[in-house]
C-alpha cells in the first residue's frame, strides 16, 4: 500500500467536462487530439436547435481549423458575412450610398482568415461532436446531468444522473465547467463559494469572457496547460 486512497466505485478519467455546447465540445476535441482522456457530461439528449449564436470571428474560424474542421467551415457550418454597409440618416431606406463599407470577406491582414462569418450553431456543434469522435480519448455521455462536485487535494469528484435517473460517480484531476452561465458549476458550486462573475470594465472584458466559458475547479487553467502542454 502506498497510501493512495482507493475509490472503487468511481470511474476515472483525466478531465471531466460538464456541458457539450461549443465550449465543452471543442475542448474535448482538443484534449482528445492531445491524448488526454476526457468524459463530457451533457444533460440534453440532442443538440439544441434553438436559434442562438450567429457569428464567428477569425479566431473562431481558427479554432475550428485547429480541430480539423476547416473543410466544413464554409460548406456546412456557415458563410462569410460579406460587406457591411453603414448608412446615416433617419429614413427607413437602406439603398443609400454608405458612408463606410467594411469588407469581411477579405483575408488580408489578421490571421489569414476572413474577418467574420455567420454560422448555424447546431451545424457547428454537430461537427464539433464529430471532431470529438476522431480519437478514442473523448467520451460523450448525453442525457447525463451533473448533480454534485466535491474535491480534495488530489481529486475532483462528481456525480451525475443518467436518463434513467441512475446515479454515477466520476473522479478526475480536473473538472471543466462548460455548462453555461446558468449551469451547475457556476450556480451551485462556484458562486456559493464566493467565486462570482462581476460586471467588468472593457479592459478586462476579454479575460471575463474566457472565465465565463471555462471555469476550473480543483486547480487552475495554468496548471492544466502546464500539465498537458496544450492550448
Ligand atoms: C437565447 C439565446 C440567444 C443567443 N443569441 C446569440 C447570438 O445572437 N449571437 C451569439 O453569438 N451568441 C448568442 N447566444 C450565445 C451562444 O449561444 C453561446 O455563446 C454559446 O452557446 C455558448 O456556448 P457554451 O458551450 O459556453 O454554453 P452552452 O451552449 O450554453 O452549453 C452549455 C451546455 O451545458 C449543458 N448543461 C448545463 N447544465 C448541465 C449539467 N448540470 N449537467 C450536464 N450538462 C449541463 C447544457 O445542456 C448545454 O448543452 C445566445 C444564447 C441564448 C441562450
End-to-end distance: 36 Å
* Mean pLDDT over the residues: 85
* SSE series: EHEEHHEEEEHEEEEHHEH
Question: What percent of residues adopt helix (DSSP H or I)?
Answer: 25-40%
Number of domain modules: 2
So, the CATH homologous superfamily of the largest domain?
A: FAD/NAD(P)-binding domain
Low-confidence stretches: 207-231
- Largest β-sheet summary: 7 strands, mixed
Q: What is the count of DSSP helices, taking H or I runs of 4+ residues?
A: 7
What's the CATH C level of the largest domain? Alpha Beta
Classification by helices and strands? alpha/beta
Explain how this protein is built.
By secondary structure, the protein is α/β, with parallel strands linked by helices. The chain has two domains: 9-51 and 120-197 and 204-231, FAD/NAD(P)-binding domain, CATH 3.50.50.60; 53-118, no CATH class. The protein contains seven helices and twelve strands. The strands form three sheets. Strands 1, 2, 8, 9, 10, 11 and 12 form a seven-stranded mixed β-sheet that branches. Helix 1 packs parallel to helix 4 (121-132) and helix 3 (70-77) runs antiparallel to helix 4.
Q: What is this structure's SSE topology?
A:
Layout: E1 11-18, H1 22-33, E2 38-42, E3 55-57, H2 58-66, H3 70-77, E4 78-80, E5 83-86, E6 100-103, E7 116-119, H4 121-132, E8 138-142, E9 145-151, E10 156-161, E11 167-177, H5 184-190, H6 205-213, E12 215-217, H7 221-228
Parallel strand pairs: 1-2, 1-11, 2-8
Antiparallel strand pairs: 3-7, 4-7, 5-6, 9-10, 10-11, 11-12
The structure holds flavin-adenine dinucleotide.
Flavin-adenine dinucleotide is lined by residues 18-24, 41-44, 52-55, 121, 145-146, 178-180, 183-184, 213.
Amino acid at each position: 500500500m502506498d497510501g493512495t486512497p482507493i475509490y472503487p466505485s468511481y470511474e476515472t478519467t483525466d478531465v471531466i467536462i460538464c456541458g457539450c455546447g461549443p465550449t465543452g465540445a471543442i475542448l474535448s476535441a482538443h484534449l482528445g487530439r492531445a491524448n488526454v482522456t476526457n468524459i463530457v457530461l451533457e444533460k440534453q439528449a440532442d443538440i439544441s436547435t434553438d436559434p442562438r449564436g450567429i457569428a464567428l470571428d477569425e479566431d473562431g474560424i481558427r479554432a475550428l481549423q485547429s480541430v480539423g474542421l476547416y473543410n466544413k467551415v464554409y460548406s456546412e457550418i456557415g458563410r462569410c458575412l460579406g460587406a457591411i454597409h453603414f448608412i446615416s440618416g433617419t429614413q427607413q431606406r437602406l439603398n443609400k450610398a454608405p458612408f463606410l463599407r467594411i469588407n469581411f470577406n477579405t483575408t488580408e491582414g489578421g490571421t489569414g482568415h476572413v474577418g467574420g462569418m455567420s454560422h448555424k450553431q447546431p451545424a457547428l456543434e454537430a461537427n464539433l461532436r464529430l471532431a470529438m469522435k476522431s480519437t478514442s480519448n473523448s467520451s460523450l455521455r448525453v442525457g447525463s446531468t451533473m448533480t454534485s462536485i466535491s474535491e480534495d487535494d488530489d481529486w475532483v469528484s462528481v456525480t451525475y444522473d443518467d436518463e434513467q435517473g441512475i446515479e454515477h460517480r466520476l473522479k478526475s484531476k480536473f473538472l471543466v465547467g462548460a455548462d453555461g452561465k446558468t449551469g451547475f458549476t457556476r450556480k451551485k458550486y462556484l458562486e456559493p463559494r464566493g467565486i462570482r462573475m462581476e460586471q467588468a470594465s472593457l479592459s478586462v472584458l476579454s479575460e471575463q469572457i474566457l472565465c465565463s466559458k471555462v471555469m476550473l475547479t480543483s486547480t487552475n487553467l495554468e496548471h492544466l496547460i502546464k500539465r498537458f502542454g496544450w492550448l
